[in-house]
Specification:
Length: 88
Amino acid sequence: MSEEETLLEFPCEFSIKAMGLATPEFDAVVVEIVRRHAPDLGEGAVRTRPSSGGKYLAVTVTINAISKQQLDSIYQALTDHELVLMSL
């Protein structure tokens, strides 16, 4: 499979998860990054879940993905941000 090939068929609904420390601004930062690349976030597109100890926060944003390039750009922007510890 080449770099441009993917098992996904676009457009499709796709969930992106980012994890970081549970700071007051973390969820807003994740949403702002994703919205730069997918401006049409729908109602209920964002879900947050704290870790069992409350130290970390997982933010899941569901988008209507239009290309592999769009997803790659979102993941790169998330991993480049200092508040994001991991993205899936």
